[in-house]
Design a protein that fits this description.
With 225 residues, the protein is of the alpha/beta class. It contains nine helices and eight strands. It folds into two domains: 132 residues, Rossmann fold; 65 residues. The protein binds magnesium ion.
Amino acid sequence: MPICFDLDGTLGHFSSGFVLLREALGGLWGITPTVEELGRCGGSTDWEIVDTLHQLRFGRSLDETDYAAYEAACLARFREAFAPGAREATAFRGVLEGMHQLAATHRVWLVSGNAPGLLAFKAKVLGIDPAIHRLGSLPRHDRADLLRLAIRNCPGPHLYVGDRPHDLAAAQAAGMPFVGIGEGVPGNHPILDPGVLAEHLVAAVETALGTVPSGPSGERDEPFI
Ligand SMILES: [Mg+2]
């Protein structure tokens, strides 16, 4: 019964993340990808985004070596930007506390679009228990693929908690019910404020776990705040 959580925007946020991604690639590739080029990236994982930018820059797809270089460069930029005394990440304390409470009785995963090294760094900054499984962006996998990997060989029900339409779309593609955090993912599913209390997050997840989705066009629980 994996309960999967997205990270950015769901458990907290790291400001200027896409600026740091572009700067990291600029240092590697000699030319910083533009905001317009970033906007042409359709995927929601680091592999998908950097692969698209790589094709725009070099005319060929990313490979594992390119991806490892990106991951190391981006991690270095984040370590620098979020060093003690520099920028601070914002943690959604109630969501984080609720996730840890759920982890005491359920299998809980972080399933994020961040490259694995970056996900590990962000999880540590947010104080996430190392015992909680982490699954970051893998080569040639989209977010729905990552969710399928997290729930593979595990009995249901499963659930994904996220903050963006691409999280909802991935949950639907993987056949998982969904709980939204914030106003960025409207729909007919539970929606919680980022400042939610831990017990309300736990209650919403437990309720949604008892809901069997009937498909993208089917009926779901009424949304609530
Ligand atoms: Mg997110």
